[in-house]
Fold this protein.
Amino acid sequence: MTGRILGLDPGERRIGIAISDATGTIASPVEFIDVRTKNHEQRIKDLCVEWEITEVVVGLPISLDGTEGPAAARSRDFGEMVGGLTDLPVSYHDERFTTVTAEQALLEGGVKRRSRTSRRDQVAAAVMLQGFLDQRRYRHGNDNNPGT
C-alpha cells in the first residue's frame, strides 16, 4: 500500500502529529496542536489535504496489563471523530512508552528543556506511527513469505 499516513497522538492538552513518507516506511514528526488554543479539527482536516493522507493512525493508551481504560476510550472517540471528519480509514496502535521514548531521544539529542516540551508530543506521535508502520511491514512480509 502506498500513500502517506497521518499519526495522531491525542492528549488532554496537545495532539502530537507525525506523517509517514509516501511508501509508508518512515515516520517523521511534524507538529503538535494545542487543543486549548486552536481549532484542531480544521487543522487535522487541512493536514490530510495538504499531505494527501490516505489513512490515519491514532495512538491508543493501553494499560500495562493490556486493558483499555478511560484514556483509551477517549482515543477511540477521537479516532471516530477524525474518521468522520476526514472520511479516511482510522486504525489504532498501542502508544505505551512513546512519550518516554520521545523524551529520552530528545535528551540524548541535547534538546533544551523548553524545546523538549514543545517537541515531545510530535516525536511521540512519530514513535507510535513508526511502530505501526514496522508492524504492518512485518505482517505483510510474513504474509508474502508463509515459510518464514
Remarks:
- The two ends are 21 Å apart (CA to CA).
